[in-house]
Amino acid sequence: MAFSGYIKSDTETFLTLGPVVAVGDGFTPVTTLTLAAADEAYCVQHNTTSAIDLSTNWMTSITNADGYYSIKATSGLLTEEGRFTIQINDDSLCLPIRTDFMIVHPNFFNSLFAPAGTDLLQVNVSQVANTSQTGNDNGADINTLITTVASNAAQVAAILTDTGTTLPATHASNAAQVASILTDTGTTLPATHASNAAQVAEILTDTGTTLPATHSSNAAQVASILTDTGTTLPATLASSAAGVSDIQARIPAALSGGNIKTDVLAIDGSTTAAANLEASAITMKIGTVSNDNTTSSATVIYCSDITEATSSHFNGKLLTFNTGALVGEQTDITGYKVVSGEGEFTVTELTEAPADNDVFVIQ
């Protein structure tokens, strides 16, 4: 039994099975297996209680890879996302064959295996900082700003109306717009300015306006300019500074270590897919090899941070190494018990014994 990877749902593909070995000695490759002649050939889809017969499906031995076979999985077999198991028994010819795959949504599959930049994992973010979000919401204030604050163009138009100035119909750049305003108001700027403060001082001198010595906020500075120039802004324009300050106050609560906290409740709009992914992740266990009491071998692994008291609790689960010389190697658990305060896992033989502190995951 082995996990052989992901399959894109509803998409015909060819799957690799093997090694198929002789029933007599358990290691001689078998190259004559056929689905039609086998005692049993079937598949089991996720969340179903019946098997689907594969005796008429296409399967062939792979050239130069004795004991390995390529079998066609039609799109009709790949409709249920979740675990997909193929089982073949031919008692007189070979040992039983079982291979497990995971059928996943096409968007998830393409985000893993499509060429870089051609497909991205679609995420439907429903919460920020444990607060439900709707539409373009990040707290109701963004919607409030969108609906109550007119565009910059409208604000500029109001100022121009109040001051009796005009802008040309089109402007190639901000520099051109500034030049037009200076022409319309009869003001000038020196050819060079050391700082924004110097530029503001020149404008105030040219226009005969003043600013108080100190200003507590941008809003206060704007109010002073409006008072000095005798201009007004429409009453419906909310303070951008106040809106920005409110957003800035909300951002730290939504961040943790520089990352936005999210609660993903849907995948491509499907809450069922998200729930299935959550159920799969919750059942996983992380363990660390411990040679403190007894040295682990290629068939028996000791772990100090998994000490489930029930014997055989993990039997039939898959164990995959994430670190060390065995990284990426996977085996199945055939026995489990607690020995001297550590979990003892009996597994199908690995290629070598794991080292102390190697990390593995059980799924």
Q: At CATH's second level, what is the architecture of the largest domain?
A: Sandwich
State mean pLDDT (0 to 100 scale).
83
Q: Which strand order do you get reading across the main beta sheet?
A: 14-19-16-17-18-15
The helix tally amounts to 8
- The radius of gyration computed from the alpha-carbon positions, rounded to a whole number of angstroms, is 34 Å
Elements, N to C (H/E): EEEEEEEEHEEHHHHHHEEEHEEEEEE
First-residue to last-residue Cα separation: 13 Å
CATH topology of the largest domain: Immunoglobulin-like
CATH class of the largest domain: Mainly Beta
Instruction: Give the overall form.
Output: elongated
Number of domains: 3
Percent of residues in beta strands? 25-35%
Proportion of residues in helical segments: 25-40%
State the low-pLDDT regions, or none.
Answer: none
Report the major sheet: 6 strands, antiparallel
Helix/strand-derived category reads alpha+beta
What is the number of strand segments?
Answer: 19
Description:
The protein has 363 residues and is an alpha+beta fold. The chain is 25% helix and 26% strand. It has 3 domains: 112 residues, Immunoglobulin-like (Sandwich), CATH 2.60.40; 75 residues, no CATH class; 78 residues, Elongation Factor Tu (Ef-tu), domain 3 (Beta Barrel), CATH 2.40.30. A hairpin with a 2-residue loop joins strand 9 and strand 10. The longest helix has 15 residues. It is elongated and about 105 Å long.
Summary of the model, kept short:
With 363 residues, the chain is α+β, with helices and mostly antiparallel strands. Helices cover 25% and strands 26% of the residues.
